[in-house]
Design goal:
- This protein is of the alpha/beta class and 277 residues long.
- It has 2 domains: 6-131, no CATH class; 136-273, Rossmann fold (3-Layer(aba) Sandwich).
- 39% of the residues lie in helices and 13% in strands.
- It is built from 10 helices and 7 strands.
- Strands 5-4-6-7 form a 4-stranded parallel beta sheet.
- The longest helix is centred in the N-terminal third of the chain and has 18 residues, at 29-46.
- The radius of gyration is 19 Å and the shape is globular.
């Protein structure tokens, strides 16, 4: 293997080969981490050293920066809009082709759901925790929010109710059925998290004793300008990483990428249900 090979996963919210809309081409924390996870699993196959560049992404403000070889080149390529996204099904083809011509390869990918096949890999989780080391300003927020939780140990009860409300502003219409599901699954030491403000508000009105944070979150791949909400979303990620168990439920046909990533990075037991109606 050629130890001089370097792969840089460049995390941004816009790329030169796609145009973001309110329906597509935006990638959240779960996508970023799955991309890191999948590419790290391939590094020994293709013989590269891997780096993750977050400087151009809104979450980069809240994460400790890591310097790396070729950093100046990547900065210039970002400035000149020369960084693209590679679809998961083409990643290995691109790695083979580009590394046959040069030692530096860079792009963004979120890999595919198959990147998470199998149990959590401790080495990969440790690498991602180093990459995502909170900056002091974020660490302070994490500690402040953790101190608000009235339980010594806690579980996460998480509802991913979709981008219609979170991004497109369309009201969630099945709140009563989700509420009934909540009643069947809630336990007294649960911390309730959700991407649906309407659902959280409903629970706060009907069950004020259920713990939830009083802050705004967002989709970090879409809401570039919501700095505080981006920080809060990262806080919830790291808080979930301190839990004893995650229960995550989603309207989609796959596990919430946000919570699946917490499971993989922090090795937290995961219970899930998809296709929630």
């Amino acid at each position: 293997m050629n130890s001089d090979k370097v792969l840089v996963l460049v995390c941004k919210t816009s790329f030169n080969n796609c145009t973001r809309t309110h329906d597509s081409y935006f990638w959240g924390i779960g996508d970023i981490i799955r991309g890191i996870y999948g590419l790290y699993r391939l590094k020994d196959v293709y013989g590269y050293t891997m780096y993750v560049d977050l400087k151009q992404h809104p979450i980069g403000k809240w994460i400790q920066p890591i310097s790396y070889i070729y950093e100046n080149i990547i900065d210039e390529e970002n400035t000149n809009n020369k960084v693209g996204i590679v679809r998961c099904e083409h990643v290995e083809e691109v790695l083979r082709t580009e590394f046959s011509k040069q030692n530096l390869v860079y792009f963004f990918t979120n890999m595919g759901l198959a990147a998470y096949d199998g149990p959590p890999l401790p080495e990969v989780g440790s690498y991602i925790r180093r990459v995502l080391t909170p900056a002091p300003s974020l660490q302070q927020r994490i500690e402040e929010k953790r101190s608000q939780i009235p339980f010594e140990t806690f579980q996460i009860l998480h509802y991913r109710l979709g981008d219609d409300e979170l991004i497109r502003g369309t009201p969630t219409t099945n709140l009563e059925s989700i509420y009934a599901h909540f009643l069947r699954n809630y336990q007294p030491n649960d911390v309730l998290l959700s991407d649906s403000k309407a659902f959280l508000t409903l629970i706060r009105c009907r069950h004020p004793s259920v713990f939830q944070f009083d802050h705004e979150i967002c989709h970090v791949g879409y809401h570039d300008d919501k700095d505080a909400a981006i920080a809060n979303t990262l806080v919830e990620f790291f808080i979930a990483g301190q839990s004893t168990k995650i229960k995550t439920f989603t309207i989609y046909g796959w596990i919430s990428g946000f919570m699946h990533s917490v499971h993989k990075v922090f090795n937290i037991p995961l219970e899930y249900q998809t296709n929630l109606r």
